[in-house]
Amino acid sequence: MRSRSPILRDITDTALWAAMVRAGETDRPDALFRDPYARLLAGERGEEILRRIPGARFSSWPTVVRTCVFDELILRCVEREGADTVLDLGSGLCTRPYRLPLPAGLRWIEVDLPAILSAKEERLSGERPRCSRESVKMDLSDLPARRALLERVAAPSRKAVVVTEGFLAYLTEEEVASLARDLHRQAAFRWWILDLASPLLLKRLRGSYRRVLEEANAPMRFAPEEGTGFFAKSGWNEIEFRSTWEESRRLRREMPLASLFRLLARLASAKRRETFRRLGATVLLEHSNP
User: Fold this and answer.
1) Are 109 and 117 in contact (CB under 8 A)?
2) CATH number of domain containing 161
3) Sequence-ordered list of residues with C-beta below 8 angstroms from that of 47, at least 6 positions apart, any chain
4) Fewest CB within 10 angstroms: 95, 227, 233, 242, which?
5) pLDDT single digits (tens) 172-225
């Protein structure tokens, strides 16, 4: 009997999954963003992943919403706040240096595992980024290498924004706390944009994707009870909390049966409504004074 191949082979395949979601949004006539590189990066393997994950096409809306909000916050930091550097940790197959209207003088440093970035560079070899892009192939769990990189990136920067999209969820609380402290040591890192799940949302995601992620040895682990207060302990203060639920309505990319959930929310207590609102979000943090 032929054995079934795993849907995700390892954590690098989650980048293909995300790229395929962006490709699907790009194909829509009312697309919220256009990523002309997403399908090329996802390839046939990305199409297979999206096809085989149960309910993946119907549960793509949070990734679409997250992409839009990250785009908005990055552009705000660059255009309004004057950020001169973007440090994209666990960048995956992000194409923002190619598709966003970024100034040519902006430094964009993306950091991820060699297999992911090498594949990306090969497929985008004929494309030109809009800003100064640097690719750093490394395992961010290598603490000496990570700390050396952060010092090197921060040295010439006046105002840098750190981006960790779809990355922290796969780390432990201890690993995220260590990263938060390392980032805070560099005063040039003024802002940090991240996505955050609550423990309740993490429980639901584990129920939906446990087998798929366990086969890839990529369990989702990070969802602190204290929410953004977790980062305050390391010197990072919440300045904007963009609820995925609220943003999905604003952007008109709501989940199936969203109207029913809104009705149930109106009947719930204020505390329960706030719990639901904070299930998942994109958050903008700011570096506090040392």
Assistant:
1) no
2) 3.40.50.150
3) 20
4) 233
5) 999 999 999 999 999 999 999 999 999 999 998 888 888 888 888 889 999 999
